[in-house]
Design goal:
By secondary structure, chain B is of the alpha/beta class. Chain B is 42% helix and 21% strand. In chain B, strand 14, helix 12 and strand 15 form a beta-alpha-beta unit. In chain B, helix 3 runs parallel beside helix 5. Chain C is α/β, with parallel strands linked by helices. Chain C is 36% helix and 17% strand. Chain C has 9 helices and 7 strands; from the N terminus they run H-E-E-H-E-H-H-E-H-H-E-H-E-H-H-E. Chain C has a 7-stranded mixed sheet, sandwiched between helices. In chain C, helix 1 packs across helix 7. Classes of the chains: A alpha/beta, B alpha/beta, C alpha/beta. Strand 2 of chain A pairs antiparallel with strand 8 of chain B, so a sheet runs across the interface.
């Protein structure tokens, strides 16, 4: 198994945390992983992205030039990375923040998910990333859904642990889409 | 005991230092190594140690000089412009033969430069940096696990040789998270330090820690002793990793992040029928001269790939000594070479060599 | 009167200091204080850059030689490793008040439990008599040949006054070594500073107005008089912090 995933969007959407959840889940299932954040000038502009690799092998560069999967949470994020997605890869895009018509222009296979809107209806927009991870699992079987629950307890601060059931509900919603 | 965790490179260095018995850390904020300073501020007191945010990088390295001179395992960390400021202290530490660990999470320069990853402090680390005839041991980890293990090793080497050991990471290695296994050693290395300034307790002769010798012959004697020690380090402590070099179409010399990029290139080149070998120095000083020199017997073409305008390539050329052509590919400014760029350069170089 | 014996904490060797220089007296006073407090075995000193760069040769206890201005940072490192030890820096005016201003200010601000002996002779001695941060207005040096002109070279720094403003500094006093009476007072101050450290109260500094007959181009007697008549006019003696401190 070797998945190269770029998650991209605005700061505050939980992009970096979602990357960590994927990486920790990978470790819990005994795989190797790297998580490389955007830092520096581009971070100051409000955009955020991270490169996550999950592999059975030793991982070379942590920097992804051609992702298998792009999780795009904003239009600028889509525009920045859509052209480098591998031919065999796909995009999961938040269609509540990016117009569906625009998504049709992408060359890769696109899964439009109204993640932010649905998450808002479920109680908090921050759950959007869990919906996206749910969809990622459905399309790849990258790890078991229940592994994400363990990962959430590791990644989230103690005072947020009470939210894990709701986060898992969001994950389940993503698994259904 | 061992545990596997997802941790930032900068934090893995901090954890390694604490597990290596370092209880005195002196830092000063600078990107991209801030997570290390932050980590120490939280976990050093928990470990019963001392964390001080110094008033400058200069003060921090001098606190290391004091603490290590007083017999403790001490460390400071910074990134390129801050490491420049520490050079005075680094030279004094070399002169006074004090064991100390300095971490450089390199960013791009010159000047204030930028905060993105680079490997452009190679010259500074291995060819001086400060004044006088001295050497630092320079270790170049390439992943999270090595950031951990080489930081632990840095303390052992520092104590063994009474030298300053630099851990040369870069912004990408420092910022990225990776699975790291914290392996505690069974028996911590404890080195007696009868030379340290601990107070005589009226039980022994006084210890004077100094690097000043006004008498030329006395200072030359000290220099000769230092050089003999450096020679011993060159004999005993060279570390490198060599992959698929025998019969390779081209061998890439690269360390740290650049070596990781090269691993990917090896796969994609292989798919196109090009055999790429990797020579990865783990000790930048002592440089693996013999192993790199021997590449001339294994391949017809060598290329150094660096996040710099070409620094390590000079040592590669010295080691190869004209026996085969040595090429260079690098990016600067915080840009990281892509696998495609490196592969294109390999094809270009091999095309030229075949003519 | 009993014959004064050579202090235990001072090596019985000849120093390299010029005739009439205050360094030798300051060394002896420090050694006497350390003997009287019985702390020779637990004292760690920091030698500076300048004429007293190698004063570790003259004391009998452990010392580290520091880069110019960095002694307070080095002392911080030592003290944090051996909090039970007595750690002091010995610094000149160029060292403490020019190149090492940041280090001394922040050691005081952290309330480091160290003691600084600040030798202020208003000149750079070792490098042949250049203008110091404490050189007085009008004073001729090799880099102020027409006399220090505040319009060009600014004003001398009053370090005791400056440091006394810092909360972490608990005992600051300026003394002089130009005559026996003042030397005895200086010794009392230095002893109190070490006691402040022994009690773990915080940072202490004794500024010692000192002579440099060679670079002042004066006879030793005239140099002592210049301290009394000229330096003490600008640098007022007294306790700037910790007057009521009982130790």
């Amino acid at each position: 198994m070797n998945y190269e995933i770029i998650l991209a969007g605005f700061g505050g959407q939980g992009i970096l945390s979602a990357g960590r959840i994927i990486s920790v889940s990978a470790i819990l299932e005994g795989r190797n992983t790297t998580w490389f954040p955007s830092y520096g000038p581009e971070m100051r502009g409000g955009t955020a992205n991270c490169h996550v690799i999950v592999s059975d092998d030793e991982i070379g560069s942590p920097i992804i030039n051609n992702p298998d999967i792009l999780i795009a949470m904003t239009l600028p994020a889509l525009e920045k990375f859509e052209k480098v997605v591998r031919n065999t890869g796909f995009i999961i895009a938040d269609s509540s923040l990016i117009e569906e018509e625009r998504l049709k222009e992408a060359k890769s296979r696109v899964f439009p998910i109204k993640a932010t809107q649905i998450a808002g209806e479920m109680g908090h927009k921050a759950y959007a990333m869990l919906i996206m991870i749910g969809k990622l699992i459905k399309e790849t079987n990258i790890f078991k859904p229940e592994t994400v629950e363990k990962a959430l307890y590791e990644v989230l601060k103690q005072e947020l642990h009470k939210l894990v059931p709701e986060e898992m509900a969001a994950l389940s919603a993503g698994l259904e889409m | 005991m061992s545990e596997k965790v997802l941790i930032k490179g900068n934090e893995a260095i901090g954890e390694a230092a604490i597990r290596a018995g370092c209880r005195h850390y002196f830092g000063y904020p600078i990107t991209p190594q801030n997570e290390l300073t932050n980590y120490m501020s939280k976990y050093m007191p928990e470990a019963g140690g001392v964390f001080i945010q110094a008033e400058s990088e200069i003060a921090a390295i001098n606190m290391v000089y004091g603490a290590a001179g007083a017999g403790a395992r001490a460390m400071t960390s910074s990134s390129s412009p801050g490491i420049s400021l520490k050079q005075e202290g680094i030279s004094y530490i070399a002169g006074a033969e004090i064991p100390a660990v300095v971490v450089n999470v390199m960013r791009c320069g010159p000047g204030l430069g930028g905060i993105m990853p680079a490997q452009s402090d190679y010259f500074q680390a291995v060819k001086g940096g400060g004044h006088g005839d001295y050497r630092n041991i320079a270790l170049a980890p390439s992943n999270g696990q090595e950031l951990y293990e080489l930081t632990v090793k840095a303390f052992d080497l520092a104590d063994k040789y009474r030298m300053l050991v630099m851990v040369m990471a870069d912004g990408a290695l420092g910022q990225m998270m990776e699975n790291v296994e914290f392996r505690d050693r069974e028996e911590p290395l404890i080195v007696e330090k009868p030379w340290a300034a601990t107070g005589t307790g009226m039980k022994r002769e006084k210890n004077s820690i100094t690097s000043v010798y006004i008498n030329p012959d006395e200072l030359e004697t000290v220099n000769n002793r230092l050089q003999a020690k450096y020679h011993e380090v060159e004999e005993n402590e060279v570390m490198y990793e060599e992959i698929n070099c025998e019969g390779a179409d081209i061998v890439i010399c690269a360390y740290g992040l650049a070596a990781r990029l090269t691993r990917n290139v090896m796969k994609s080149a292989s798919a196109e029928g090009i055999k790429v070998g990797l020579m990865r120095p783990i000790t930048l000083w002592p440089f693996p001269k013999q192993a790199v020199g021997a590449l001339a017997e294994k391949t017809d073409t060598v290329m150094s790939v660096e996040l710099s305008a070409g620094q390590m390539v000079e040592d590669v050329r010295l080691a190869i000594n004209g026996k085969v052509p040595v090429h260079f590919y690098g990016r600067t400014g915080g840009n990281i070479p892509t696998q495609d760029e490196i592969l294109d350069k390999i094809k270009e170089v091999l095309g030229k060599e075949k003519k | 009167m009993p014959v004064r014996l050579h202090p235990e904490s001072l090596e019985n060797i000849t120093t390299h200091y010029c005739p009439g220089c205050s360094h030798g007296i300051a060394h002896r006073v420090i050694a006497e204080v350390i003997d009287e407090l019985g702390i020779e075995g637990s004292t760690i000193g920091i030698s500076p850059v300048g004429c007293s760069y190698n004063n570790y040769k003259y004391f009998t206890f452990d010392m580290l030689q520091a880069a110019h201005g960095r002694a307070p940072a080095v002392a911080t490192g030592v003290k944090r490793v051996h909090p039970e030890s007595i750690v002091f820096t010995y610094q000149g005016d160029g060292d403490l008040a020019a190149i090492g201003t940041a280090e001394i200010i922040h050691a005081a601000a952290r309330g480091e439990k160290i003691t600084t002996i600040f030798i202020n002779n208003a000149i750079y001695g070792m490098t042949s008599g250049q203008m110091a941060p404490t050189t007085l207005e009008g004073q001729v040096t090799t880099t102020s040949p027409l006399g220090r002109d505040p319009k060009v070279q600014g004003f001398p720094l009053k370090m005791s006054e400056i440091l006394s403003q810092i909360d972490g500094a608990v005992y600051i006093e300026r003394v002089s070594m130009h005559d026996v009476n003042h030397i005895l007072k200086a010794k009392k101050a230095i002893k109190k500073a070490f006691k402040v450290q022994l009690a773990g109260l915080g940072f202490s500094m004794i500024e010692v107005l000192s002579t440099c007959p060679t670079n002042w181009r004066m006879k030793p007697v005239d140099a002592a008089a210049w301290v009394k008549d000229t330096m003490m006019e600008y640098y007022k003696l007294g306790v700037y912090k910790g007057e009521d401190l009982e130790v």
